[in-house]
Specification:
Rossmann fold, 7-stranded parallel beta sheet, 48% helix, 13% strand, binds nicotinamide-adenine-dinucleotide
Length: 265
C-alpha cells in the first residue's frame, strides 16, 4: 500500500504558533509532511524546544520568525521573510490572537487598536502578501482561526467579538476572490480551548469568586458547552489539516465550528 504524506512538499506559515492552538496546528501540519514556519512570542529556549520537538516527530526542521503582528509593517513583511527562507508559502494559517476583557465604556483605545491589529489587520496583511504567489502556482490554502464568538457575542469582549466577526468577512471575501485561482480560504471556529489565553480568563474569574480553577471552569466557562469539556488544541489542528488537504479543494468560505455543540444551544 502506498501511504502518501498529504502535505509533503508544502510550506506552511502558522502565525501565533508558539503556544496553544497554533502550536498544535504547526505540529500537526509538520507531522503530515509540511515544512513549517513558526511565529509568535516565546523565550529563545522555548522556541528551541518547539523546533526540536517538531524536528524529532517529522524529520523536518521548522524555522522561527519573530515578527510582531501588532505592527502592520512586520505583518506585511512576514510572508516575504518565510519565502526567502523556504522558497514559497503554500499554506497560511492566520491564528495569532489576543484578548482583552472590559465593558465598552471602559475599553481602552490602545487595547481596541491592539486587538484590531493582531486579530484582523495582520490576517489581511499576510493574505495580501501571500496572494500573488498562490495565484501564480494555482494552489493555496488559507485558514483563519476565528471563534464561536464570530457568530455570537459575550459581554465585556467588544474588541474580540468585533474582530472575530470581521475575520469571517475577510475569509468569505478571500474565498470568493480565490475561487477560480485554486486558493481556498476557510475559518475554524473553536469554542473554549484550555490554552494560556483562556487560562488567564479562568484565573481572573476564580480570583474574583474565590473558587478553585476547576469549579470556575465547570460553573462559568463550560456551562454553554454541551460536552462539558474544553475542546483540545489537537481537535482544532485536525480541522485545519482537513481544510488544507486536497479532499477539501471544493470547500471554501466556510466557518467550521469545532465547539462541542455550543452553537446549538
Ligand atoms: P495562546 O495565547 O495560547 O496563543 C496565542 C499565540 O499568538 C501565541 O503564540 C502568541 O505568542 C501569539 N501572538 C500574540 N500576539 C502576537 C503578536 N503581536 N505577534 C505575533 N504573535 C502573537 O492562545 P490560543 O487560545 O491558542 O489562541 C489562538 C487563536 O485561537 C486566537 O486567534 C484565538 O482568538 C483563537 N481562539 C481561541 C479559543 C480558546 O478557547 N483558546 C477559542 C476560540 C478562538
Amino acid at each position: 500500500m502506498n501511504i502518501s504524506v498529504p502535505l509533503h512538499g508544502k510550506v506552511a506559515l502558522v502565525t501565533g504558533s508558539t503556544s496553544g492552538i497554533g502550536l498544535a496546528i504547526a505540529q500537526t501540519l509538520a507531522a503530515n509532511g509540511a515544512q513549517v514556519a513558526l511565529n509568535g512570542f516565546a523565550a529563545p529556549d522555548e522556541v528551541q524546544a518547539i523546533i526540536s520537538d517538531i524536528e524529532k516527530n517529522s524529520g523536518l526542521k521548522p524555522k522561527y520568525f519573530a515578527h510582531d503582528l501588532s505592527k502592520l509593517d512586520e505583518a506585511s513583511a512576514l510572508v516575504g521573510a518565510v519565502t526567502d527562507e523556504f522558497g514559497k508559502v503554500d499554506i497560511l494559517v492566520n491564528n495569532a490572537g489576543a484578548q482583552y476583557v472590559a465593558a465598552i465604556d471602559e475599553f481602552p483605545d490602545e487595547q481596541w487598536q491592539r486587538l484590531l491589529a493582531i486579530n484582523l489587520t495582520a490576517a489581511f496583511a499576510t493574505t495580501r502578501a501571500v496572494w500573488p504567489q498562490m495565484k501564480k502556482r494555482g494552489w493555496g490554502r488559507i485558514v483563519n482561526t476565528a471563534s464561536t464568538l464570530a457568530f455570537t457575542a459575550e459581554a465585556r469582549k467588544a474588541g474580540y467579538v468585533a474582530t472575530k466577526h470581521g475575520i469571517l468577512g475577510l475569509t468569505r471575501e478571500a474565498a470568493l476572490e480565490g475561487a477560480e485561482l485554486g486558493i481556498t480560504c476557510n475559518a475554524v471556529c473553536p469554542a473554549w480551548v484550555l490554552t494560556p489565553l483562556v487560562a488567564k480568563q479562568v484565573d481572573a474569574k476564580a480570583a474574583e469568586l474565590q473558587y478553585s480553577f476547576e469549579e470556575t471552569a465547570r460553573n462559568y466557562f463550560l456551562t454553554d458547552m454541551p460536552t462539558r469539556r474544553f475542546v483540545e488544541p489537537g481537535e482544532i489542528a485536525s480541522g485545519v489539516l482537513f481544510l488544507c488537504s486536497d479532499a477539501a479543494k471544493s470547500i471554501t468560505g466556510i466557518a467550521l465550528p469545532i465547539d462541542g455543540g455550543s452553537l446549538v444551544i
